[in-house]
Design brief:
This protein is of the alpha/beta class. It has one domain (about 15-30, about 80-285, about 330-364): Rossmann fold (3-Layer(aba) Sandwich), CATH 3.40.50. About 35% of the residues lie in helices and about 20% in strands. The protein has helices at about 45-50, 60-70, 75-80, 85-95, 115-120, 135-140, 155-160, 165-170, 260-270, 290-310, 315-325, 330-340; strands spanning about 15-20, 105, 125-130, 145-150, 190-195, 225-235, 245-250, 270-285, 345-350, 355-364. An 8-stranded mixed sheet has the order 5-6-3-2-7-8-10-9, with helices on both faces. Strands 1-4 form a two-stranded parallel sheet. Strand 7 (about 245-250), helix 9 and strand 8 form a beta-alpha-beta unit. The radius of gyration is 20 Å and the shape is globular. The relative contact order is 0.15.
Length: about 375
């Protein structure tokens, strides 16, 4: 489906509900990139693209870039990957070994395609997290109305004083998907909830699970069990969740955009429970020289110009993409970084002749 709405139109016909009588931020107040950059400005110059990972204000530029390309993001991804992006996500979900009791956090979720793949897998709860506002409202919009649960801000401070992190992640009064926040320097952000029910409940019919269904129309995702999907606006380097909250943490095509890779991996480790899995899907340079030359000719010459034309982008996003890949870590280096953070049983599975790689590792 082509996303062609104006960035400000995603809220038409939607309700924004907050428990805070004096909310400090709302959807309409966060449409600009950080550090004074507007989404219509160029985020990446030719000089910056020489070493994109060394840009001192990389985080702000990445946020601005993704806010700018949000309207047609999924369409462009599918078009210029030849539809392979969906297959890559499905394989990453399969390699994660999702079980019915798993609580999943998808970091840098963008418009939510990877998050929804996990929602279809039968996990108990799925949370999508991103710091690009225009991406996130489109992810939440798929499920209906947007609901801000600002009352949970700071809730994890109770966890730090001795309350079970597991209870805070799942909620004793609300099952699965409750987005909890912490006080230890993280950002609480805005939270949007969407209910997904494969068997629709009639109005007034008991749901049998005690879940809060306010303002949620639900969306069909194909699974036979009820679950909640939560969308949380927050920075991957300062996740607003209690430690030991999730059994799976995922990230698709996002870790190379982190301003601090080790910091981001450490945050993934922190919010995982012992024995939990991290699943990272990321572009890599094919090892076969012929394949690499063909792929990089396409990625450097054809794709940037064509994707910029199709998307109408002026931020430089599709020039940044190939530069961020060729200057990022090899699969071997990525495995080493995962091990240094503390993960064990680290594996790398190459897909599509090595164009992308799925990393899976376990928290000790």
């Amino acid at each position: 489906m082509v996303e062609s709405a104006h960035p400000g139109s995603a809220h038409e016909g939607r309700r924004y509900v907050t428990d805070d009588p004096h909310p400090s931020t709302g959807p309409e107040e966060m449409n600009e990139g950080s550090e004074g950059m507007h989404t219509n400005d160029a985020a990446w110059t030719s000089e910056l693209l020489n070493t994109p990972h060394d840009a001192p204000d990389k985080a702000g530029r990445v946020r601005q870039m993704f806010n700018a390309i949000a309207p047609r993001y999924e369409f462009v991804n599918s078009l210029f990957s030849g539809g392979r992006d969906a297959a890559w996500r499905r394989e990453a979900v399969r390699l994660s070994g999702v079980r019915p009791g798993d609580d999943v956090l998808d970091i840098a979720c963008g418009t939510g395609d990877f998050t929804r793949s996990f929602a279809k897998s039968g996990a108990r709860s799925v949370t999508g997290c991103d710091f690009a506002h225009e991406m996130l409202i489109r992810a939440a919009d798929v499920g209906g109305c947007l609901v801000s649960e600002s009352r949970v801000r700071g809730a994890c401070s109770n966890s730090e004083r001795g309350e079970s992190a597991r209870a805070k992640a799942s909620g004793s009064e609300k099952q699965g998907g409750e987005c909890t926040t912490r006080d230890e320097g993280g950002t609480s952000g805005n939270l949007y909830h969407t209910e997904s029910n494969s068997t629709r409940l009639n109005e007034g019919e008991s749901n049998g699970g005690g879940s809060d269904n306010r303002g949620s129309s639900g969306t069909e995702l194909g699974q036979r069990t009820r679950h909640k999907t939560t969308w949380c606006e927050a920075d991957a380097l300062k996740l607003p969740f209690a430690s030991d909250s999730f059994s799976i943490v995922s990230c698709a095509f996002g870790v190379r955009n982190f301003d601090d890779l080790d910091g981001g991996l450490s945050e993934m480790y922190r919010v995982l429970r012992s024995g939990g899995r991290v699943v990272i899907l990321e572009f890599t340079r094919p090892k076969n020289l012929t394949v690499r030359r063909l792929y990089e000719f396409y990625a450097n010459r054809i794709m940037p110009a064509a994707a910029t034309l199709v998307s109408g982008d002026r931020s430089g996003a599709y020039r940044y993409l190939p530069r961020s890949v060729v200057s990022f870590l090899t699969a071997e280096q990525m495995l080493e970084r995962l091990g240094c953070v503390g993960f064990r049983d680290c594996t790398a599975t190459a897909l599509t002749l090595g164009v992308v790689t799925v990393y899976v590792a376990t928290r000790s």
